[in-house]
Design brief:
Elements: H1 3-13, H2 16-24, E1 31-35, E2 38-41, E3 46-48, H3 52-55, H4 64-74, H5 87-99, H6 113-128, E4 132-136, H7 145-150, H8 154-158, E5 168-171, H9 176-183, E6 188-194, H10 209-220, E7 223-227
Parallel strand pairs: 4-5, 4-6, 6-7
Antiparallel strand pairs: 1-2, 2-3
């Protein structure tokens, strides 16, 4: 298909808002071939992919070792059945336990970052028997019901899906006094934040900020959830951003 045909079809059946927004600033990219750090448009022009789709392509596009592993696995297995033990899931969970700091021993597999955040928040609420979740102003943690409320509420308000205001609190980044003011009430189940807030524009935490937040969580009985959907698995040069 020609590029204009693809764009027109995407506008009609998939995402007219995005197509129009990009069109207004002169972007009419349709991605064709992808390889390593590069993407190519349908005319063969090559671009360096600095976006990597929010951390999806930490290993680059179509890494040959990853392709070989996936093809080999599909010869004998598929997505499986989550009710029963799986060799692949067990091996991966063990490796994650070995590589994850602290006493994080178990892995719950999820299909998206939003779902992972939902699971983490529900787990924290059950463990602490508290409901309030504290996060950063302008943060982003997903688009589902819980994860959407945890982050910046612009999208959740647009879809009339705002939860109870008592259940979610937002504080400025790098502001320890503001964080302590909320945690000291001892009503918080967990603080969740990205180690480096990506959608916020990648501001860096000040020296001692993350350590200070974790210390307050321990002092006031809250859990600390490190959202490493975008900073984890090698994107910062280390396995984990924190």
């Amino acid at each position: 298909m020609e590029k204009n045909e693809i764009i027109a079809m995407a506008r009609e059946y998939v995402c007219p808002g995005k197509i129009d927004t990009f069109g207004q600033v002169g972007i009419d990219l349709v991605i064709g071939k992808r390889k390593g750090p590069y993407i190519f448009d349908t005319n063969g022009n090559r671009f360096i992919d600095l976006h990597i789709n929010g951390g999806v392509f930490n290993l680059g596009h179509r890494h040959p070792e990853l392709i070989a592993t996936l093809v080999s696995a599909l010869e004998n297995t598929d997505i499986g059945n989550h009710h029963f033990a799986s060799e692949a899931r067990a091996l991966l969970a063990r490796k994650l336990a070995e590589k994850t700091p602290g006493d994080l021993h178990y892995t719950v597999f999820a299909s998206s970052g939003s779902e992972a955040v939902d699971i983490a928040v529900k787990t924290a609420r059950w463990a602490t028997q508290r409901r309030q979740i504290v996060s950063l102003n302008k943060g982003y943690h997903g688009s589902t019901g819980i994860s959407g409320n945890v982050g910046d509420t612009t999208n959740i308000d647009y879809f009339l899906s705002r939860g109870s205001r008592a259940d979610y609190a937002h504080v400025p980044f790098n502001d320890l006094p503001a964080m302590e003011d909320i945690l000291a009430r001892e009503e918080t189940a967990a603080v969740i934040m990205e180690t480096i807030p990506a959608t916020y524009g990648f501001p860096l935490p000040e020296n001692g900020y993350l350590q200070g937040v974790r210390k307050m969580c321990r002092e006031y009985g809250a859990l600390y959830i490190a959202d490493e959907v975008q900073t984890g698995l090698g994107r910062t040069g280390n396995l984990w951003g924190g």
